[in-house]
Amino acid sequence: MMSVSASYYTEKISIEEFYRRIGLCKVKANSMPRKTSMYLEYRMYGLVPYNLSPIQQGIQFGHAVVEYGLNIKGLAPHEGIYDKWAKTDKTFIILNGGTTNNNPEKLGTLNQHLLALNSNDVITTEFYEPDLGDQLTAFVFLVDERVFNRTLYPDFVGTPYPWPSNKKPTEKQMSVWQAENDRNYLSWEEKIGGPTNAFLRDYLKPLRLA
Predict the structure, then answer these.
(1) Pair 166, 179 in one domain
(2) Domain total for the chain?
(3) Cα 155 from Cα 202, distance rounded (Å)
(4) Radius of gyration of the chain (CA)
(5) Could you give the C-alpha distances from 25 to 4, 22, 79, 176, in angstroms and in order?
(6) Chain-centre distance of CA 35, in angstroms?
(7) What is the pLDDT of residues 153-208, one digit of tens each?
(8) Structural domain containing residue 76
(9) Same domain, 87 and 160
(10) What is the DSSP string of 64-106?
(11) Are residues 47 and 99 both part of a single domain?
(12) How crowded is residue 126: how many other Cβ atoms within 10 Å of its Cβ?
């Protein structure tokens, strides 16, 4: 028997039935969806060096995905999320990571990307190719829909500046306005999955496909 939560997120119904059900509950118009982690859509993102052939980029990415699946075993809830992605979502996003070099004095951009994501609590798994001097050739990480679906999860928009350009507000007025923006941002951040997802939304935006 399908659980109530699974039915809510995965059962296929007609548009007429959807409107019937939505009419039975209170829903705020244009509000963000509130899904549990097991029912979000996930994509496996990864970065690879720019100077490998497309086939090799795909192979190195695949190595890292296999390592990710092995490393995540026994780690709840991450193992369940990975299994859900592997069985249902399956999508790869392979990004251009630039250069690879593990020399601290000439650290490659791929290596720098890895450090940046790790320092922002993104769970990653790397692959180092033995045939290329054990250089970093790929790393991967799962990303949920609250990062890449900007239609369902729009960017934060602060309270507009409430004064005309020729009027200088008092410090108290500015403080009240800033406090409102800060509260609204924290509420938005919580709805899109917390600081790590907020970081990923900005960090991934300028990156390009490999």
Answers:
(1) yes
(2) 2
(3) 10
(4) 21
(5) 15, 6, 33, 35
(6) 15
(7) 999 999 998 999 899 999 999 999 999 999 999 999 999 999 999 999 999 999 99
(8) 38-150
(9) no
(10) HHHHHHHHTTT-TTHHHHHHHIIIII--EEEEE-------GGG
(11) yes
(12) 20
